[in-house]
Amino acid sequence: MAMVGLAAIAQTFQLGFQVLKWLGIAYLCWLAFKMWQQPTSGEDSLPQRSSPLSMFGTGIALTLGNPKIMVFYLALLPSLVNLSTAGLREWVILATVAISTLAVIDLAWTFLAHKARLLLRTPKATRMASRIGAVALGGAAAAVATRN
After folding, report:
1. Global pTM?
2. Potential cystine with 106: which of 57, 59, 81, 85 (Cβ 3.0-4.6 Å)?
3. Shortest CA distance to 122 belongs to which of 46, 36, 35?
4. Element (H or E) spanning 50, and its range?
């Protein structure tokens, strides 16, 4: 029923979706252009460092507050755990596994961000990163434009 409803909405508001699609493409192109033209000044343009604990806490809070993760758990949890018989012990185990997994992933991202910061110290490297990002945004705009 949901697919039929979504198909009906898509058919009814087809012009609106087309306008929204092309506005999105124009926005991606504008972002790509601005990123390509962005002046590079090396290390001064990098964000200021924060304490590792503060950065880790922010990352965990952002990850745990992500609605996609909540929807994922709502969709997956009933197939893995019998919710009617799960007790406190099972919930503690699930929470511990989930938070540990997210912490390991956030620590890996933090490590990679630190390495990227070391790479982006020169204006040449910053310019290269901006150009790669601009090409990626332009490619995304082209991919969206060529889809029906």
Report:
1. 0.55
2. 59
3. 46
4. none
